[in-house]
Write a structure and sequence with these properties.
about 65% helix
Amino acid sequence: MRYKEDYLTAGWTYDNVRQRYLDLAQRLRVPTPIQTDLAAIQALPSTPERAKVKRLLWAISDGVMLGDKACIQIAVEFVAEPVYFYYSASIRSKMRTRLKQALLTAKQRQRLQSLQSDSTTINVV
């Protein structure tokens, strides 16, 4: 299956994204990391990898709405990288919408604006 290979080789496995989030949350001193969502997803051992990745990315998208800086960084990376799998387009679209209302650093804003042809106003921290 082509989609599975795309996200696995691009580093977007559940374990990679989860660890990236935990490292960023610690480094950026996120006061309330999305531990509950991570634990709930981890508790599904028989769930296929792509379903875990999908649920984790939805949780990260929700974290963007809450202003979680680690979620915002991962969402920017996900939107910017050409990684594709089942549901990735809808997740990417939702993240784009939520990032438009998030407080972004100048570097994050620049990365997103380089991807967009429309000049949407994005808040900068």
